[in-house]
Amino acid sequence: MKNKPPTMAALATFGAAPTGAEGIQITPNGASPSTIGSTDYFTGHVVVVPLFPATEFTHGTGGHVTFAPGARTAWHTHPAGQTLMVTSGKGWVQEEGRERHEIKAGDVVWFPAGVKHWHGATDTTGMSHIAISYMLGGKNVDWLEQVSPEQYQPSVSEQRATA
Ligand code: MN
Predict the structure, then answer these.
(1) How far is the CA of 5 from the centre of ligand 1 (A)?
(2) Which single residue of 15, 43, 135, 149 has CA 20 to 30 Å from 158?
(3) How many CB atoms lie within 10 A of CB 48?
């Protein structure tokens, strides 16, 4: 039984399992150091806590990301999509050419592959989310230009709509 991978039937019943796992694996909080979001890919104060790597079966990396008010990602795409689960606070997500959406704790967001977007806090509230980013061809994100202050600041009509 040692190192025997789960059968397809087991996967169908229980979902994807860690590669080669012999039993339950618990990764202690803090096992991987948190990092400050790089100014190449983020604006403002961002803390990234790595949660889990992709495996042969799960294909997605997990991370817990916290944005201070005003902080956000750069524009980017994901080659195989991304799921966000908002764990606290309130933030914004936006797809290029479309209006932004407000997201709050408990919301789940799916970005399809290749859709150009950004996510982050609102200008007045912090926001944390767990991000599961799916791998394709050895990568899970393609970074683009920063979200400018003009793009980030809600327009007058948007502010009126949410008031
Ligand atoms: Mn994304």
Answers:
(1) 31
(2) 43
(3) 19
